[in-house]
Amino acid sequence: MPFVQNAHVTLFVTESGPADAPAILFSNSLGTTHRMWDAVVAELSSEFRCIRYDTRGHGASTRSHSAFGIEDLADDAVDILDNLGIEQAHFAGLSLGGMTGQAVALRASTRLHSLSLMATTSYMPPASAWNERAALVRREGTKAIVEATIQRWFTPGFTAGSRAAIDRVAREFSEADAEGYASCCEAIGRMDFREHIGQIRTPTLIIAGAQDPATPVEMSRNMHLSIPDSHLVVLDPAAHLLAVERPDAVIDALRSHIGERAA
């Protein structure tokens, strides 16, 4: 069952782990695919039902033909759970995936056992910058911004010592669908959950990278202060793409957070 169809898009979905184990739904960042979670899922699939998908307009998922918001991405995630017959799941999202997770928690909280938000934010102005990036990518493709993006996503030490991992992420980013990427940029530019995230009651873990210039630690702290009883973990060293740079730390944090819910 590699694809889920809804009224707007076709979503690529992949599963690993025992079918009767607690389910974790993983949501990828802007410009990546489900494969950004490879190292995390390789470890966790021995004890969890790990479900990954490509956000609309990314990887093997199709893009919609009209403008959409983060709320629509949240509906996509719920559609996947519906299609798989999963009443409740743990949700782990990074960057754009974390924005999607916030929207799921606000729109469909009963579907979540827990929420893990990594290298993300509830508000990321200015919208004009996102619109400009979207226009650039539509003109020149994601190749035009891949070098600058990779510099923001990883610490210099990781970049120097993990060339194969960096090259794979850069290649995937360069091959991303320009319109799908641009449409998600515009959705991020319109997003503002600041007035609402205090309503989230799903047990929430927030993970930040100490050297992340894309979504600085202060953004995570603001979410932590707004979401009741949330827990904040700051990884150091780490930049933005935490699941690739610090998979072991992400695995430990997820196991602890999800384990507390099970207990």
Cα radius of gyration in angstroms: 17 Å
How do the helices and strands follow one another from N- to C-terminus? EEEHEHEHEHHHHHEHEHH
Corresponding CATH superfamily: Alpha/Beta hydrolase fold, catalytic domain
CATH class: Alpha Beta
**How much helix, percentage-wise, in residues?**
40-55%
What is the topological layout?
Blueprint: E1 3-5, E2 10-16, E3 23-27, H1 38-44, E4 49-53, H2 70-84, E5 89-94, H3 96-107, E6 112-118, H4 127-140, H5 146-153, H6 156-161, H7 163-174, H8 178-190, E7 204-209, H9 217-226, E8 231-235, H10 242-245, H11 247-262
Parallel strand pairs: 3-4, 3-5, 5-6, 6-7, 7-8
Antiparallel strand pairs: 1-2, 2-4
Name the descriptors.
263 residues, Rossmann fold, 8-stranded mixed beta sheet, 8 strands
What would your notes on this structure say?
The chain is α/β, with parallel strands linked by helices and 263 residues long. It has a single domain (3-123, 193-262), classed as 3-Layer(aba) Sandwich (Rossmann fold), CATH 3.40.50. The chain is built from eleven helices and eight strands. It has helices spanning 38-44, 70-84, 96-107, 127-140, 146-153, 156-161, 163-174, 178-190, 217-226, 242-245, 247-262, and strands spanning 3-5, 10-16, 23-27, 49-53, 89-94, 112-118, 204-209, 231-235. The chain has an eight-stranded mixed beta sheet, sandwiched between helices. Strand 1 and strand 2 (10-16) form a beta hairpin. The longest helix is centred in the last third of the chain and has 16 residues, at 247-262. It is globular, with a radius of gyration of 17 Å.
